Amino acid sequence: MSFRLEDIQSARERIRGRVARTPLVSSATLSARLGPQVYLKLELFQKTGSFKVLGAFNKALSVILMPEKTPRNYIDATRGYGAEVVLVANASVAFEKIGEYESQGWTSIHPFDDPLVMAGQGTVGLEIVEDLPDVTDVIISIGGGGFMGGVATAVKSLRPHARIWGVETEGADAMAKALAAGHPVHLDAITSIARTLGAPAVSERTLELAKKYLESVTVVPDREAVAALRFLLERAKVLTEPAASCTLAAAERLRDRFTPDSRLVLILCGGNTAVDDLCSYKV
After folding, report:
1. pLDDT tens, 133-147?
2. What dihedral angle (degrees, nearest 10) is formed by the CA atoms of 130, 163, 139, 55?
3. pTM for the complete prediction?
4. Which residues in 162-177 are b (16+ Cβ under 10 Å) and which e?
């Protein structure tokens, strides 16, 4: 199935009123620190605390499979929205269980390799271009690549000269490994603290979108993601997840690719950090 800007525009009409339109704010602190004009897309203020609700509303499911190591606050919040949560050993087992539920009459929704999910998530890209028409650069986290694929499709379709930069953390770098190999690579384990980036492998679809739209994928260590999380909390007053703060860590590494005239957007895709986890992070 082809994936186009029109799919994302249709998704926005479908989910309008069910999701929040999150703000895009400028940051004088980060602009001074990095050099370009920096803006934060505060998708962590979305309902449920992350971008994922956008795709879910575009294609809904009432039973959700989660790895046992999913942060407890994620599980409790999901149950609070009325979903039945089934805990399994890891993400790979969750994917293996899909066939079992489909045989019982359930409809499965892939967390990233589904055009409708990607279209819903891609509405973030529409909002970025509307709020910052002269955007030059966007840094986005990559898990399985659906969010990246949707946002990149929207931004590049409307602003072809804008550059999209991907970021992953060490131990959750399925896309970087896939790009290096030329095909999806299965990770034996997810060792990064950025567990929400922990897809065991990207898909052929998301890999092709990465090849088409991304300038590069920067892989940062957990300690840099945590240092960025701390900086954002102290200076921007937003509490992100490592899976979101890694965009700032990547921007630090990419700073020589920007100029004072660059208009750089860091997408802070989620803020569901449990207090216990936050207290355990070490820079």
Report:
1. 999 999 999 999 999
2. 60
3. 0.83
4. bbbbbbbbbbbbbbbb
